[in-house]
Design brief:
7% helix, 7 helices, mainly beta, 38 strands
Amino acid sequence: MFKKLSLLISFLIFLSAQTAVAQVEVELDSISVTASRISTSISESGKNVSVITQRDIQQMPVTSVDELLRTLPGVNINSRQGFGVQADVGVRGSTFSQVLFMLDNVPLNDPLTAHFNTNIPVALSEIGQIELVRGPASASYGADAVGGVVHIKTRSYLRRQINAGDELQTSVFADLGGGQHNLLKGDIGIDLNKNRWRFSASMRHISSDGEELSNPVFEPGDSDEPTYDNYFEMTNYSASLSYRLSDYFTVYTRGGFDDRDFSARYFYTRSQFDHSEEQITNRWGLGAVTFEKDAHRSEFNISYRNVDDTFDFWPGTLPPNEHTTDQLFLNLSHQYEFSGEAISNRMNYIRLMAGGQYLDKQIESTDRGSHQTDMGGIYTIGHFSWVNGLNVTASARLQYDSIASTEFLPQLSASYNVGDVTLRGSAGRAIRVGDFTERYISSQIPDLAPGRNIGNPDLQPERSWTVDAGFDWRPASRIKVSPTVFYRSSSNLIDYALTNSNNITNADNLQPNEEYFYAMNIEQSSAAGVEFLTDATENLGNNRSVGMQAGYTYIRTTSDGDEPSKYIANHPKHQVNLGLRFSTRWGSVHTENSYRIRSEESAELVDGDVPSGYFISNLNLQVTPGWSPAMLYIQVMNLTDTQYQEILGAPMPGRWVMGGLKLRF
């Protein structure tokens, strides 16, 4: 019944969109993005870039950043729970470690494990724009930007150089709601602006007792608990302050605290003894100093992040693993723009940038030990724009790593505007450096039991080359059709391989002549695929609009030897997305639907079942009385109550109904 209702709603909105698309006009192409650190419009970047705006976030049926990213072609998400508890994000078939997450121009990737990369430490209400840059960007941003970059920009960062009026301007936002399984959620923020300064603060909380799930090891007699709950509780606080010291200098700071406590049962293992619980506390701060005068623009960025992670595999029985990581990041860049009489009359402008960055990582861990590593690089970027519609961006970086050799990372992208069509293409080299888990897991456990994972401190960086080509076609105003083909060749990919301890020379805690899963540079693979996106929106008049966003992704990953491992190719082969929206002055309807086809996988011991295909539909209904700043909403996640897993053993939520009230004044 619910599946039929979801399909009917989607079909009706789709029909409405089809009657409207003849008058649609694309606005996203004019949005400024930093696909290569140098700010350009999307159409000038030469990259396949998607932007999620603040308005999208307010209307879409989502509760977290990873749910927002699910709606975009080329993105593959493997979640262990809903609501942003934990998700692995790949782009174009990359592993979850090969995507660089950034917040306000500083990296978010966690040095312990990339499983934590989606622990976004700001509330949804503070996000002004999310940029997804598909393809490599290591030449501009450094290691880990292999499959792509997810750059989250807060509203205060985007507006930090804009003066407010002489009167104090105040805005308050609140999203208060609840739902099934004792779900409680609140997202509250405030902005204060006057003259040269801006202040913002927010608090976000979401918690639930979780669904009551059947314990797969109860009937075999391995547990006396017939059920278990996948509970979660997450809270973060954040505040920012920016001040224009003069017409040329702006100072921006942001800091916060993020705390997570959740059931992690079967998140990482398929052991019948897994009763895992996890607590993660994240303290962070960042700052930026910007100078802009005439053709010159300089920016200095700094960030510090401290994370405590406590992983309790069997509470009350075994001692937990405790990890503390620290990460310091510095970046300095200067840009100069040639325009007007300084260049040929055949060119619009030339922008040149040079810069350097430094990243220091440290860990203290009960099972991984104490370690420190640093890396950095110097880079140059040039963007050239001709009046005939040609744009070229060229980048190059020398990347330094304290435990690996220096790498040269080049990148080239170009676009050419021909009437209603923009041709684009790019090519580049990227690397990814092994994290502390891959290098040192279990290294401090005496007399390690056979069959466990063991790290490798001598891992070399993963290396890849990627090329892509596509075009953006605008057959009518506010219609956009964007197909892209891509190919990535990778070497030195890191994976765990069953290895005899007699052949492992850099670990002294192993039992003789036993088998262990040893982290190694063993895989060489290639990924080829197609991304297709069409976006159409129309203003129907009388404050009514209708829109559609449809996407399709095909990815095929192959290996030089046997079939690539699940770690290397853990992504759908086919993925179809369809977003439909209709809004009036009195409210809106927004539904996001997806169908994925992937390799099935099962593990009977933990009732694990990753299906070969599954359909997911989320729905958001909002009512906005014209006389009130309030908005009532009902949101249904997994409308069809699909039973599925994306990580073997970790069930994803079934149908989950919630509702609430949004206020903005």
